[in-house]
Every structure is written in structure tokens, then in C-alpha cells.
Amino acid sequence: MEGTIILSVVIITLVHPSNAQLSSSFYSSTCPNVSSIVRSVVQQALQSDPRIGASLTRLHFHDCFVNGCDASVLLDQGGNITLSEKNAVPNNNSARGFDTVDRIKSAVENSCPAVVSCADILALAAEASVSLGGGPSWNVLLGRRDGLIANQSGANNSIPTPFESLANVTAKFAAVGLNITDLVALSGAHTFGRAQCRFFNQRLFNFSGTGSPDPTLSPSYLTSLQQMCPQNNGSSNNTLNNLDPSSPDTFDNNYYSNLINNRGLLQTDQELFSSNNSAAMSIVNTFANNQTAFFQAFAQSMINMANISPLIAPQGQIRSNCRKLNGN
């Protein structure tokens, strides 16, 4: 962990009203230690891979936006799965953390066989990742079942991309019942993790066909990014860049200060602080000035996102292997 800032931890115990079937105590009798098991494996993974917290949080996000939070993003191609979400454009050679999910699942199965769903493991792993990174904790609502299908076209069409307008991203959030506060708060997950050059190099040299860089990029930040991602250099497309250059592995509110200073890495980051949307700008200002407000909003928005169309028994299954359907 970089830096020596001591970050306050906010405990959120809010319950989203739309899914009373989910409960933070769902496994209290069948797998009472599941949260600590998940947290322990994530903590171990962080020792050798400081990116893994951001990667696991992103997996949960990419899962929930496609068919709801049903662990469909974890399914490999094969058997009844003819088109894996892993091969969709937003995930291909980008989504990661699957091996860590496998290790979590193995540890949970050793303690509580055939009880905890992979979808719940993703929700718990995201909370553990944020909390261990210095961010808020919250009571994760549990009781999801694992889906029986993958939806590659849904992944291609429903997951927001780094190249879209704020209006498009807002519409994709609205389609799953999330509002502008959720959008701005959940974008704050870019306070840790990395992004490959290919996800933002359109901003560096020829933005929207203008022949010039994106004018909203800070000149000094632009220069450093151009050095990391040279023009017409295909070999740099996969080069990793910190989403938050000020504290790349710490979950804090610096992401929002970066936006105010025109140092948002992705187009969709910087557009949150543009004159096109005064509501988003106002929320960015609030979060930049008040980390506690950000932490509280982020925790609630994660609870909201984790409640997108969960499968409840008797729907779905409890996969024994998160990568494939039972019996496949």
C-alpha cells in the first residue's frame, strides 16, 4: 500500500428495499465464516498483486450489468456455454482476477461445500477489496444463486465503455435502475487499479477526429501519458497506467480531485466533470471535498448495484466450479 494516510472506515448497514430475499445473515448458520474466508484470500492475493483489489471490484461490476449479479462473467466457453462473456469486448484481455476467484471458491468449499454461490463470492470479494484498499466497509447482502447462461452480446452492449458520452453511460446505468449519484460514486472505484493505453489513447493525439489531443486533459498530464502511450505504437496498447496517479493502490477520494484538475484518465472519467452535466459536476465537487460523503455514497451504490436482478432459490444453482455449470 502506498502512502501513509490513515483512512477512516465507514460502516454502512443500509438495506436496499427492492430485494428483501437477500440478507447479510443469509449464511449465518450454513457458512458463518464466509466473509472472513473471502477477505483472507483477497488479503493474501494483494501481497503479490496490488492490482487485484481493483480487478475483483471490476469483475463484480461487469457481472452485475449483464443478466444481473449471477456470476455469468466467470463462465468459460465450453459445454452449454457457447459464447463466454470473458470474450466480450469489455472483458477480452482486460478482465482479470479469475484465478483469485477460483482460490476463494476453493477455500469456501473446503469450509462449507455446495453452500455459497459464486455470485455471492464476487460481491464479498469486491467489499473486501475496497475495505483492504483503505475504503469503506459495508454489510454485503447475500443469497444470490449462480446463473445458467452467459450473455456475450449483453456484455458487449450493456457494460459502459471508456469511449462513450456521459449521456450514453447514464442511460446504461438507468437501464439497470442506477441513477447519476450511483454513476459518479461507482466511477470512484477508479481510485485504484490500472488501465491499458488502448482504452484512452484516442484522447492523446487525435481526439474525435480533430487532429489534436482532448482539450480537457491537463497539459502536464497529457505529456506524461503521451510518453507512456506513443502515437502509432501498437506495442504500447497494453501498457498499464494508473487510473489515479496520486495514490494508485489506495481507495480514497483523490480520483475526484484529479477530475477537477483535468487529470481523469478515461474519457468517461473526465466527462463527469464537464459543463454538459451540472448534476454530475456537483457530486464530483462534494466527493472531492468530503471523503466520508464519498465512502457512504459508494457503499450504498455498491449495495444498489449488487441488487440488480439477483437469482433467488429455486432459480439457478450453486456452482461447484465458478468457471462452469454443474455437470458440464
Counting helices, strands and paired strands, the structural category is mainly alpha
| Proportion of helical residues | 25-40%
Number of E-type strands:
4
* Tertiary shape: globular
Number of helix segments? 12
**Rounded mean pLDDT score:** 93
Point out poorly predicted stretches: 1-20
List SSEs in N-to-C order: EHHHHEHHHEHEHHHH
Largest sheet: 2 strands, parallel
Q: What spatial order of strands do you see in the largest sheet? A: 1-2
Rg, alpha carbons: 19 Å
State the separation between the terminal residues, measured CA to CA: 40 Å
Estimate what percentage of residues fall within beta strands: under 5%
Key phrases:
3% strand; two-stranded parallel sheet; mainly alpha; 12 helices; metal-binding; Peroxidase; 328 residues
Describe the protein in words:
This protein has 328 residues and is mostly helical. α7 (180-187) crosses α11 (278-289), α7 crosses α12 (291-306) and α9 (254-260) packs across α11. Mean pLDDT is 93; it is low at 1-20. The chain has helices at residues 34-48, 52-64, 98-111, 118-132, 152-158, 166-175, 180-187, 219-228, 254-260, 267-270, 278-289, 291-306; strands at 11-12, 137-138, 194-196, 240-242. It contains 12 helices and 4 strands. This is Peroxidase. Keywords: Calcium, Disulfide bond, Heme, Hydrogen peroxide, Iron, Metal-binding, Oxidoreductase, Peroxidase, Secreted, Signal. Belongs to the peroxidase family. Ascorbate peroxidase subfamily. Belongs to the peroxidase family. Classical plant (class III) peroxidase subfamily.
